[in-house]
Each structure stands twice: as structure tokens, then as C-alpha cells.
Amino acid sequence: MSNEVDLSVDIAGIKMKNPVITASGTFGFGLDYLEYYDVNELGAVVVKSITKNRREGNPPPRVIETPAGVLNSIGLANPGIDCFIKEVIPQMDFIQVPIIVSIAGDEIEEYVELASRLDKQDRVSALEINISCPNVEKGGLEFSTSAEQVEELTSSVREATSLPIIVKLSPNVTDIVEIAQAAAAGGADALSLINTVLGMVIDIQKRKPVLGNKKGGLAGPAVRPIAVRMVWEVSQAVEVPVIGMGGICSAEDALQFIMAGASAVAVGTWNFVNPTAPVDIINGLRDFCLKEGIKEIKDLIGCAWK
After folding, report:
1. Which of 281, 225, 295, 233 is closest to 261 using CA atoms?
2. pLDDT digits (tens, 9 = 90+) for 212-270
3. Fewer CB near the terminus (10 Å): N or C of the chain?
4. Which of 133, 249, 289, 303 is the catalytic position?
5. Rounded to an integer, what distance in angstroms lies between the CA atom of residue 131 and that of residue 143?
6. Residues 99-135 pLDDT 10s
7. Which neighbouring-strand residues pair with 166?
8. CA distances from 108 to 111, 155, 165 (A)
9. Is residue 127 within 8 Å of 115, Cβ to Cβ?
10. CA triple 138-143-148, angle to 5 deg
């Protein structure tokens, strides 16, 4: 049996040596993980969402552990686009794999400005359009729940950049397929799903919500079955590739998403539990393919549709 397995994938022209990437918001700018492993072992790196202006984020508490997951309400805290371009990008020279920058905004014009400015940055390989953050007052769910607005926003960003654009979808919608098709119609080159599931925890002694922002996004193993189902539905309904995420902790979890139709997978919350999870998953995918006689990981994409 050959010891060679081709784990490479191509997501809208973004060539990755394997299908494992980091999920926006859980990996910072990659600098915090340097002591754990070489990030260039990944397929790509997705950095945390950037907005036009600096954001301090939501009031604390911002994170609380829940059964099989984490509820967070960070609120898109970030240094803003000026600082990101002038100070952060120069620090990311050590990253040789594709860098995907997540962008977010309150208005379509903000997304357009961000896309236009990042279009000029050589180190940026693609943009992830975060239309689905549940932890901000404006933008966020306002965009992600309307097919019409999703298509309009995607189309506007498409006109502003030549970079591949990946639209990140929210599970907090009535019909995820309708939203996905709208993003594809607007010119999305790929889709990523799912973002967090809106939730709340009540402190029964204080008799009020625990999080400072009251509501937050649930992530972790608890949401995985929801995410797998949505990836399975969306990947069969659109022509563009899908990046699956939501509670991926192991190679077995990643394989569920790939077999459901995902061309790549993103590791999020589990980075906090096991900082080496992404490379562990890459090795696990290789081992599975060797054991099963799979020569190319691409052969497993959508195999559960049958």
C-alpha cells in the first residue's frame, strides 16, 4: 500500500495542501499559536474579523462554558483596518500558507471599503465575509437572515475586490439553503458554515443573564450535528465549494463534514481546549485515508449524499 495520500484541495482558486483551516475568531492572527506548532502545516489561516474602526467588544463576562460547548459574546473586538494593515500584516510574514481575512461591518459600505483596501494587500489570499456574527447590535444577524440583503451585500463586495470571497453563514435562519443560494447568486466563490447558534445562560442566584451582552453564540461539540446537517443540505444546493465548521474536535468529526459535502473544514472552539488540534486532525485524516485505501481526500467529499 502506498504511504502517499493527497490531502490537497482547491477552494475557489485558493490552493491548500490539506483541507484543515482555522475558524475566524478562535485563532487571533496566528501569533498566539507559534509555540505549539508550525502554522504552515495548515491548509490556510483565517484571522479574526476586522472592522473599519477599532472595537473594544462587548462588556464582560464575555465567555461561559456550557455542556459540550462555549457561549461567547466577544463582540468583534479588533484593532481596526488601519492597525491591521500597518502593524499586524507585517508580523504575519512567517505564515506561508494562504491567509484569509474575515471582515465585518455595520453597513454594506463598510464591507465594500474593507474589501477594497484589503484587495491591495499581497499577503491576503481571500476574504471571508462575516455576515453572521450574533454578538453585535448592527450588521450581524440583520444581514444574514435576509436572502435579498445577503445577495446585495455579496454582490457589492464582489464588485470591490478581485480576491476570492467566502460568505460565512448563520444557522440562526429559517432556511439556510435559501440564504446560501442568495450568497452564491451574489457572486460568492465559496461558503463557510456554520457560525455560532444564538443562546443564553441565566444565573439563577442573580436572576439575570450571565453574559454582559445577555445573549451569545454557542459553539463547540454541542452544535456539530446541526452544522453537519446544514453542510449536507447546502453543499447539494449550490455549485460553489463549502467550508464546514461547528464543533470539530477530531479527524472523525472533520470526516463527517467532508462526507456531508464540505471541501474543507475549520477548527474553532477546540483550539482553546487543544491548541494542536488542527495538526492532529490533519494527521488523523491522512491515517484514515491510508487505512481505507483512499488516495485523494477529494474522493470523500459528499460521499454521504448517495
Report:
1. 233
2. 999 999 999 999 999 999 999 999 999 999 999 999 999 999 999 999 999 999 999 99
3. C
4. 133
5. 6
6. 999 999 999 999 999 999 999 999 999 999 999 765 5
7. 128, 190
8. 5, 10, 15
9. yes
10. 145
